[in-house]
Amino acid sequence: MKPTGFSRLSIRRQEEITGYLFIIPFLIGFFLFQGLPFIISFIISFTDLQFVTNIGSLKFIGFKNFITFLHDNTAVESLGRSLLYTVLFVPAIMMSSLILALILNKRIMARNAIRTMIFLPYVSNIVAIAIVWQLLLDPRDGPVNLLLQSMGMIHLPMWLVGGTHIVIPTIVLIACWQGMGFNLVTYLAALQGVPKELYEASEIDGANSLQKFIRVTLPMISPTTFFLTITSLIASTQNYSIVQVLTKGGPGEASRVFPLNIVEEAFTHSRLGYASAQSLVIFTILILATLIQWKMQKRWVNYD
Amino acid sequence: MESYESNMNRGADELNRSRKTLSWAMAILLLISVTAGCAKNTTKETSMETPQASSATETETPQATEEPKKDFTLKFAISAKSATSDENVKLMELASERAGVKVEPLVLAGEGVEFDQKLMLSLMAGEGIDIIYTNNASILKYIASKTAAPLEDLAAESSYDMDKVFGKYLKKDEGRVYGLPAFVDIWITLYNKKLFDDAKIPYPTASDWTWNKYVETAKKLTDASKGIYGSYMLDYDVYNYMRAKQLKVKEYKDDGTSNFDDPAYAESMKFFYDLGNAHKVQPDFLTFKSKKLAWDGFTNGQYAMHVNGGWSIGLMSDPKAWPRDWKFGLLPMPSVDGAKKSTLSVTGMYVIPSTSKHKKEAFAAITAMAEKQYTLGSGRIPARVDLTDEEIAAFITNNLAKPYANDGVTVEDFKAAFFNKDQDVVDEKMIGPGSTKINQAFISEGELYGLGQKTLEDAMKAIKEKADTAIKEEKEAGQ
């Protein structure tokens, strides 16, 4: 029988079409909920749009929103806070999760229970986490300050409520504790994939534990480190929820990070054009940081 | 007889066909599931609606009744907490009766600023909301966003004279009316008689009720070792500048910049934070923030006096929500010593969104809500100019004071707090360019001052700078 329609195509072509059919649902979702809003946001950032309902009287104002941003102390300072958050968060979560993964990769007592405990915050409700930490860090009579007091500390930290200088590091600490589970599990998988022969060979060569870690472990898990660095970097810019539930940007504006500023401009002050411009600024910074890392990875990421 | 090879080929072909069929089927299934997820469900408009509200969606089933029954309901956007209050339940019943259509709550998530954000988003997204509540300051954003419908044509259509009923309380923007005022919320003082009795201190009187007297009395009542405080105030923006407002100090200078370098604003802020931090007559500000003390904390019986909007008297009339075993008293808001008696006020109003599909019915509903809300026994003062003195007097006696007779709160107390003609009533809200950001500046800088993180001078300087920037931005945006 002569093949017709789809069957007439080569196997390779048929497989290609089938593959595309599988990813079409995702592509539709991606375009509708991410691509299209991004394009709209990009366009809006060059307009004076305040309310969607006033879209008829929309005016294109070129780069005015971006110029306004450069002169807007509140916005620039909130971007600075976000950068500080990232600078603290990414190394902290990477190092702590790697150290814990190295420990939990050994045969220690109650290993699985400890792994579960570390992973638990990752799947816990952020509001519940906020309530627990707010109680722990209550500057008046929270257990942490009571402990510090009993140890003789006089000037107790104000943590989330009144600590204008300490509030961002405190939020980073909580965010690391919460997000560490994912990094830990990924690192554990990577560590378990390092061939034992390499350690045996390095032992024969007389390598000590530190040398084995630096010369064998780190290079072998470098693709995982690269992946986790990128995802942690992105996660560090998506800190709206945790900051909102912990401090709402306070005390004063001490923890008003960039996402909070964007949401406030868009939905409290109804400056959609200006808020979109700010979103584009953080998007550009993120893309640049990722590209730099992508280029730099050739120097330290080992895929062999 | 077919060869082994041809059998194998046919088998492989069949397997390939099955795989292709399966692949197609799965791809189509995925596609359907994605599009189904995106499709609008006409029977369940929003998961945030109450069960009652979700049953209120339009139905296409014709009703076999004598009169043509309206096959829709009106949606009143409201927060979860407000939706179940006695006052709002009764209010919706009143509105339903006047409109001839059931008015039901459309519950939106959050309270305060979060609720406002959600509401604005819902309105801009064109969600089917027919009635919203706002006040004389916040209505400006609905007008600017064109999400509030002008009411003149609707009033003319139903021969309703808005000026005759609401007169001076009608908020007009460029000559147009966008909302019907329902009540004037006047600031008052509530006090806990039991704590006064326990401390053997006579109840204060309205005639000489000033801030100095308030602080003096609060000091006598405070016994921090027992957790008893003489005063309780919240962290609302208005507390930061209430005394400057009472003194009618202008918010804007003649040149259009802010007037927050006027010493009255610094004095007002200092006075408020001193209550907790210096005089210790209420929890200090760090305790207030770290313990997240509640907006309705006065009802727990630990605080002797509470200055707040007149709405707070409603807390005293709902024993289910706020049970108490003590009686309360009512006074006017304390006046600034040496100045004329004064209090603050805000006008609550109902607005029809421009996206409402049932404006005619919604207008009928909001006329009932605006005219009658004060009759529902929640301490609301009517924003009407058509009531006679006799009607007002009857309202105070039979309606306003009646629910509180057991507390010993008299008609005279209500008259002194709400209807004193010798008392200036000043707008509580900042109304003007940049007002949203100005209020935010007061909250954030006030917080830093209250927590001891900034000096008063630095906080006031920052407020002035932020306010001037906000004014400039808003003026530029409006050009």
Protein model, in words:
The complex is a heterodimer of chains A (304) and B (479). Chain A is mostly helical and 304 residues long. In chain A, 71% of the residues lie in helices and 0% in strands. Chain A is built from 14 helices and no strands. In chain A, helix 3 runs parallel beside helix 8, helix 3 packs across helix 13 (258-268) and helix 13 packs antiparallel against helix 14. Chain A starts with 10 loop residues before the first helix and ends with a helix. In chain B, 43% of the residues are buried. Chain B contains 18 helices and 13 strands. In chain B, strands 3, 6, 11, 12 and 13 form a five-stranded mixed β-sheet that branches. Chain B is globular, with a radius of gyration of 28 Å. Chain B has helices at 4-38, 51-54, 80-83, 86-99, 112-124, 139-144, 152-157, 162-166, 193-198, 211-221, 237-246, 263-277, 285-290, 359-372, 389-400, 411-418, 435-450, 456-478; strands at residues 74-79, 103-108, 132-135, 172-173, 176-177, 179-186, 188-192, 229-232, 303-308, 328-332, 342-351, 381-382, 424-427. Chain B is an alpha/beta fold and 479 residues long. The termini of chain B are far apart.
